[in-house]
UniProtKB/TrEMBL annotation:
Enzyme Commission no: 6.1.1.21
Assembly information from the UniProt record: Homodimer.
Catalytic activity: tRNA(His) + L-histidine + ATP = L-histidyl-tRNA(His) + AMP + diphosphate + H(+)
UniProt-recorded name of the protein: Histidine--tRNA ligase
This protein's record includes keyword RNA-binding: no
Residues holding L-histidine: 89-91, 119, 133, 137, 303, 307-308
Domain Aminoacyl-transfer RNA synthetases class-II family profile stretches: 30-368
UniProt xrefs under HAMAP family: His_tRNA_synth
Species for this entry: Methylocystis parvus
UniProt similarity note: Belongs to the class-II aminoacyl-tRNA synthetase family.
GO CC terms, sorted: cytoplasm
Amino acid sequence: MSKQDSTLKVEARSPRGFADREAGEIAATNRMLDVIRSVYELYGFEALETPAFEYTDALGKFLPDQDRPNEGVFSLQDDDEQWLSLRYDLTAPLARYVAQNFDRIPKPYRSYRCGPVFRNEKPGPGRFRQFMQFDADTVGSASPAADAEICMMAADALEKLGVARGDYVIKINSRKVLDGVMEAIGVGGEENAGRRLVVLRAIDKLDRLGPDGVRQLLGEGRKDESGDFTKGAGLPLPAIDTILSFSLGGQYKDGKPQFDLFGLLGKSDVGAQGAEELLEIEDLARDAGYGPDRIRIDPSVVRGLEYYTGPVFEADLTFETRDEKGHPVRFGSVGGGGRYDGLVGRFRPENTPATGFSIGVSRLFAALKLVGSPIVTAQPHVGPVVVLALDKDRLADYQRMVGQLRVAGVAAELYLGAAGMKAQMKYADRRRAPLAIIQGSDEKAKGEVQIKDLVAGAKAAAGIATNEEWKAARPAQFSAPESELVEEVRKALAAQREQG
């Protein structure tokens, strides 16, 4: 290797479509997840964790493109030359788990899962290749009550997270109803399955692209802002008009629907069956006290994945926000799901009914920040108490202080760098430390420590104009006997909590 080559450095850069998350965001996200988890467990759902990788054939035709394992998902071959894929969602792994443990688990089986999922797709603003989902599913029940319960649970979770009633709605539709519309425009039957999926995914983009964008995707195709072209479904104009008129339905006035669900379906038997199921779900929700302001039928709802077989759900946030140009826009969907009665049956002789709901964690987190939910905004991340190391030959003394604090349940760390006091204090600020513990040779001789309240100090410093005032006030710093270190630190931390 030449001398020039040995000096080359690798550029530090994040992979496109992947993001780093820092301590404050992680802590706030965990608080949000704890709230969701508490609601799911209140409904009797239990935790389950599945691997990030699945055998690619376990995902099967539900991949975006079944003929190219790396199209839409990230795939690799293991040492047995078996194709493995990073999970595309949390539902297909659940189906595999249930089938694998079918005779052992209770049925209906109620579980929730939380974790990252991966999409090998073009990243863009707000679109990542890795993101987190939080799912809850009931496997083994064909009852519409299971679908209604999922919708009610989603509504409860949003409200407990701080989304006000009136700022969200759980919208429900049915894949059977959509199939009825597909029959009416001539794209029913197994031979049109691929084309039908293109139509459904186009409708699913109605909120984001608007009617004109969806019209293009239902026709010959659409070119986005970057110049990339997406091939359309190639429907004739009358079929496009039928799809759009159906999808733009769903208006309510004074809590009553302003559309005729059965009238929209014509003579489709499967569509009528889906409509009956939707009305039963709606009745169950109403009986439980969930009005149309919280849960309601909406023909515009489509879930893009092919495995849905019945009711589908969307958690839609109705409040307005601003786009990058300052224009008002509705926040839109933060989660969705539906019934998938054929997914477990891929692994077993018979089908197993199932229904579930998935929350997009990052998107919901952004929404909660917009509405000012205290769960993600009111508790800034606080670091550990930092013990400064001013005398390098007394590290054992400083480590003993840190140990005493940790034994008492106080998060603490010893400064391990080589800088002086000023740099150590700057380090404590960057660590968001609530307190700094200072003991130089003078304090050691007196058997004392200096405890500096960095939170109060920052507030006091804002009102100090000169260096002389700073030296005279020495804001938020006090002496304490070394033997009372733990007690005094606890008092100072308690005072910070009381002051907010």
